[in-house]
Amino acid sequence: MLRIAVLGCGRIGQMHAANVARHPRSTLAAVYDVHKPSAERIAHDLGVKAAASAEEIFASKDVDAVLIATATPTHADYIEMAIAAGKAVLCEKPIDLSLARVESCAAKIAGTSIPVQLGFNRRYDPGHAAARAALVAGEIGDLHQVIITSRDPGIPPRSYLEAAGGLFRDMTIHDFDLARFMLGEEPTEVFAIGGALIDPALGAALNEIDSAMFILRTASGKQCHINNSRTAVYGYDQRVELMGSAGMIISDNRKPHEMRRYSSKSVEASEPYQFFFLERYLEAFMAEIDGFVDCVEKGAAPLASFEDGRRALILAEAAYISMREGRIVKVSEVNA
Amino acid sequence: MLRIAVLGCGRIGQMHAANVARHPRSTLAAVYDVHKPSAERIAHDLGVKAAASAEEIFASKDVDAVLIATATPTHADYIEMAIAAGKAVLCEKPIDLSLARVESCAAKIAGTSIPVQLGFNRRYDPGHAAARAALVAGEIGDLHQVIITSRDPGIPPRSYLEAAGGLFRDMTIHDFDLARFMLGEEPTEVFAIGGALIDPALGAALNEIDSAMFILRTASGKQCHINNSRTAVYGYDQRVELMGSAGMIISDNRKPHEMRRYSSKSVEASEPYQFFFLERYLEAFMAEIDGFVDCVEKGAAPLASFEDGRRALILAEAAYISMREGRIVKVSEVNA
Amino acid sequence: MLRIAVLGCGRIGQMHAANVARHPRSTLAAVYDVHKPSAERIAHDLGVKAAASAEEIFASKDVDAVLIATATPTHADYIEMAIAAGKAVLCEKPIDLSLARVESCAAKIAGTSIPVQLGFNRRYDPGHAAARAALVAGEIGDLHQVIITSRDPGIPPRSYLEAAGGLFRDMTIHDFDLARFMLGEEPTEVFAIGGALIDPALGAALNEIDSAMFILRTASGKQCHINNSRTAVYGYDQRVELMGSAGMIISDNRKPHEMRRYSSKSVEASEPYQFFFLERYLEAFMAEIDGFVDCVEKGAAPLASFEDGRRALILAEAAYISMREGRIVKVSEVNA
Amino acid sequence: MLRIAVLGCGRIGQMHAANVARHPRSTLAAVYDVHKPSAERIAHDLGVKAAASAEEIFASKDVDAVLIATATPTHADYIEMAIAAGKAVLCEKPIDLSLARVESCAAKIAGTSIPVQLGFNRRYDPGHAAARAALVAGEIGDLHQVIITSRDPGIPPRSYLEAAGGLFRDMTIHDFDLARFMLGEEPTEVFAIGGALIDPALGAALNEIDSAMFILRTASGKQCHINNSRTAVYGYDQRVELMGSAGMIISDNRKPHEMRRYSSKSVEASEPYQFFFLERYLEAFMAEIDGFVDCVEKGAAPLASFEDGRRALILAEAAYISMREGRIVKVSEVNA
Question: B24, B189, D189, D280: which could form a disulfide with D274 (CB 3.0–4.6 Å)?
Fold first, then answer.
């Protein structure tokens, strides 16, 4: 049983803490949050200790590993501290909003053999993972096109958006990573457009967009499209399509259950898709923990690594340049 | 081009006349209806002659074959007249409501080499036919269970019901035939229940039922369930399921098109199923004509024969005994 | 947190023990099995105590409730002992293979206010439950027909079959209960056929069947069909269809994930359905525990009660009479 | 009955001739092809006259309208001749591969009240048309994103490709038109990438691509993605997705029938999608004729007009500039 402490007790930290607690291969060692009452509430609910500080966790010999789910600006610091303390790391995305900080963190932990896994949950989703496995097994021949649809069920509150670092770094970063995971080679060019179609006023106030489209291309010519929206009223929309010389694979949305309605108005009508990431990627979050335990206990390489986090951020930066300049941008143009 | 005359210009006769006219392998030679204005209207629309009598059609040397879509009580007479006149026959179901009359007709036309095809359209439906083909090809191993769902979109007018001969002879007869087609061997036992669930008052007035369930079994033990309803508000419901030792095949409902809606209320909602038999079995009706031309021109055996019509009626009779007596009835108990 | 002890550490007991351990509203108090090493293995894995006897559990003041997952012949005894000891009961189906024993148990515990819940997992399945809720909400008007498809993925070992008490009491009992749950009124008549289609030799040796079909009818005339097979090679097949005057609802099979394949051979091909009840009804088993905690902590009536277990068994008995005698059997004909 | 002559008896001309002949509102007046035996064969099969020249058709008083399905370079000439002769025109896409020639043709026929309809079949497809209708009815609120998937089942022969004018003018032109149809406002910017992923050698030899992706944007900011491939081995892939503030609509692929297979390998597997445009858009081609008859007989405006043909070609030209220059191109940059 891997003893994992969870740093950060916000929405996603709470979920991770509960998952760690009930995962058959891990135990929850402790929780910490800068807002003490949050940590105490979770600690009480799950029957563990709320640490007084992150340092206390890094120093504890009852902690094998940390799951970092704190605010983004603290991720890189905590990664560095964890590695220094010899604790394995499972860190939520993004590593940092600043590519320079990501690079400096990378330099600091270079050469460590301690596992650092990134929270790119899509890679662990049973449907997406099966799609990737079928692709790798050669079922669709040579991959030609990847289509990723990624739409949140509703626009987040203004306070969230102000801290999120922009759509591409906050939301699309998952899709950039998924594109890399599926393409099997690095995208070398990125094109992006964006707009504030859902809430133009908010968009103007924050200089932020809520709808976007992307085209990526790899050196060998593989093509990838991503589309994003902050408001899919029909539920969290998460689809991946892989099209190749010998066939196609689609990893489609998951419904809460398989009940369908038939009336004089419509047939085969299902409940809206699973509300948001906590529901949609529940299995993926559990599989993340499983994969993480494998990294620590069996020396497996993380399916989603620090380097994957860095490369996804570079694609986000390239996309921002593209959106500003109205042209396809070479990934090699991006400087930290 | 096979020159086909259509007898009967009611709802289904009109459809057949139009289909014969536009089918690439047939031409509409003439139409006839006991109600002259009906025949004349169709004749005018399709640019053919309205015959003054059925006899005129049987006597015409410009007619190769007849499609009988008149009122049920005339079917057997017209079949006999057609065979006497050397015209091939495509006759709507049922042959007659009286098994005795069917037997006497069978006796009269026994030994003829002139094709007599029955209008069991399900056999010609692309989905059902593909299911049968896959079954015959061994794809699901030994067949164990057949489930037939057959529900009309709405209860017909009282006048129709008064002449229809009862649900089992009018509606289920298609399903009895489909059961035989799929089972690949004769059902030897029949069990049936029925009730007037949709319109109990009408049921009481006519001593008629609108909802029914059946279980059939063959000599080798294959099991078949049929369910019927006169009111599927979500559209004409026509499904067949074949379950075997190595798999299952379902021939499902056809939608008018593949447009689906996604909202905050439901996802994947389609338009109701195709309204009724004219829409759902349009391709089947055209394939019926194609098969009929093959019978006449190439000497093919009808996929749905007079004997199939006779046997389906026997199953209906067995079902009536079962419903009355509350027990499983041997098909061999039925006497004409 | 409800402290639940699990009696029986076979396949289903193991699963229940793990579920109780990870359910947020329950803790696993202890486990017991007549085969001590089985209990000790589970106890070790889940970090609890293996009780030396069932009596030890009933006597323990650290146990609030028991989940009975032992061999069927012990169920009724343990229910009686639990009630005598003041422990709430969640008991796997069936209560007993003998209706007389069920009746004597009922008499013994009559009048108790201690909750006794039956393990009819279908009632707790999210899809089936949503279907029932939509029905109760009036979405499909008056219910006319219920179709239950229930097929296991493979024939169990001979040793299992020898002790199982016959297909109707072992497997169909779930479907009889589900029929009652959906019909909303008692079936008053039962018709059944069965056969050994998958393994005739085994069927002959054990005088057992592996494929069956049923028709049930309620006093008001509602119709219900059930079909069973021990061998759905395409995965555990668990469907419910509710057809009414204003629409239809289907609770369909659940796939392991939503990945679909498209090739030159076929399109929209998914992985086989979830393997068996441990996978298919995982959410239902967890919801069972949730409902059980509500019974104990909030005084809720069990969604699946002892009486439901008794009535389902009566339907099984009626079905056996029907199969033997080839006629529809009144439920009132069944004597304990 | 509108008397329509068909010019061009190649693959698509043959189909149009047969459709005109069997359409209830039109008759086939004559056929013509520069290759006389082709015309004579069709004329024989359909029982009409093969005209000796196009001029003969334009001069005939037994012809109300012409359907132009000849080689692309003749389209504009025939349109001009038809208008001069007072014949209504239904012309296959594209009008011409040269935008200059399209502009000169537009100038020549400017002001005519004689209907000119373009063969943009997608607009007439029942599923796509229903999607458009639901959008216009406000069902999904404000439109934000359009996703068009358009993939041919196989790469055409080299000879076809040499004359086709390039992927964007030959194939994508349908999608550019469909984008305009769905967006409800003009795209003002176009971005495109392309590659020869299926057959790089052929691509190099012809300087042609077989796979492409596009992003379009309108003045109000609506976003549209199109993807194209010449090789969807799973069948002709034609999907449209409309995503808006209040919901989503998908017009999905149509299968030949609704038979699904269930085995130990996969479930819900259907036959590959309808092979190619003759099958997939059969209903659309018939609806085209219906719409055309409405134009002539009722003075309706064509759903797909000459101007629509011109604007789609402009988008193709903008896409070529974009692909060459690696930047988003304003549609206003395109000069004839």
Answer: D280
The answer as to whether C305 is a domain residue is no
Best of B268, B270, B273, B276 to disrupt the A interface by mutation (most A CBs within 10 Å)? B268
Q: How many contacts does B have with C, using Cβ atoms within 8 A?
A: 101
Distance from CA of B53 to the nearest CA of C (A): 44
Range of the domain at B130: 123-284+311-333
| Both structure tokens of A274 | 């699973």
Per-residue pLDDT of C132-141, as tens digits, reads 999 999 999 9
Same domain for A131 and A95, yes or no, is no
Contact B270 A273 (CB under 8 A): no
Among A233, A235, A266, beta carbon nearest to B270: A266
Q: Is C272 close to D267, i.e. CB distance below 8 A? A: yes
Q: Is residue C137 domain-shared with residue C210, that is, in the same domain?
A: yes
Last residue of a domain, one of D114, D140, D166: D114
Q: Which residues of C touch D268 (CB under 8 A)?
A: 260, 268-270
DSSP state of D305: B
**Structural tokens at position A182:** 């599926």
- Per-residue pLDDT reduced to its tens digit, C315-333: 999 999 999 999 999 999 9
The helix or strand, by DSSP H or E, that contains position B239, with its residue range, turns out to be strand B237-244
Residue B27 β-bridge partners: B3
User: In B, which residues are within 8 Å of C198 by CB distance?
Assistant: 144, 245
Interface contact flag, D197 A222, Cβ < 8 Å = yes
Cα–Cα distance, C146 to C180 (Å, whole number): 10
CATH number assigned to the domain comprising residue B89: 3.40.50.720
Question: D249 and B264 in contact by Cβ < 8 A?
Answer: no
- Contact residues, chain C to chain D, C-beta under 8 Å: 233-235, 253, 255, 260-273
Upstream peptide bond of D94 is cis (omega within 30 degrees of 0): yes
Q: In terms of domains, do C109 and C178 share one?
A: no
By Cβ distance, the residue of D253, D264, D269 closest to C266 is D269
Tens of pLDDT, residue by residue, chain A (336 residues): 999 999 999 999 999 999 999 998 999 999 999 999 999 999 999 999 999 999 999 999 999 999 999 999 999 999 999 999 999 999 999 999 999 999 999 999 999 999 999 999 999 999 999 999 999 999 999 999 999 999 999 999 999 999 999 999 999 999 999 999 999 999 999 999 999 999 999 999 999 999 999 999 999 999 999 999 999 999 999 999 999 999 999 999 999 999 999 999 999 999 999 888 889 999 999 999 999 999 999 999 999 999 999 999 999 999 999 999 999 999 999 986
Nearest residue to B274 (alpha-carbon basis) of B122, B127, B152, B179: B152
State the DSSP string of C36-70: HHHHHHHHHHHT-EEPS-HHHHHH-TT-SEEEE-S
- Residue of D145, D210, D239, D258 best to disrupt the A interface, most CBs of A under 10 A: D145
Paired with A146 in beta bridges are A224, A242
Total number of domains in chain A = 2
B: neighbours with 3+ CB pairs under 8 Å?
A, C, D
The beta-carbon neighbor of B267 closest among A262, A265, A273 is A273
Q: Which amino acid is at A248?
A: M
CB-based contact B247 D262, cutoff 8 Å: yes
Cα B186 from Cα B180, distance rounded (Å):
6
Query: Residue C173 falls within a domain, yes or no?
Result: yes
Yes or no, beta carbons of A223 and D232 under 8 Å apart? no
Let me know the angle formed at the C-alpha of B135 by B129 and B140, rounded to the nearest 5 degrees: 140
B253: chain D residues, CB-CB within 8 Å: 258
**B33 plus B171 within the same structural domain:** no
In a domain, B53, yes or no: yes
Q: Determine, yes or no, domain membership for B71.
A: yes
| B97 and B141 part of one domain | no
What is the reported pTM? 0.96
Nearest CA to C216 out of C70, C100, C322 is that of C322
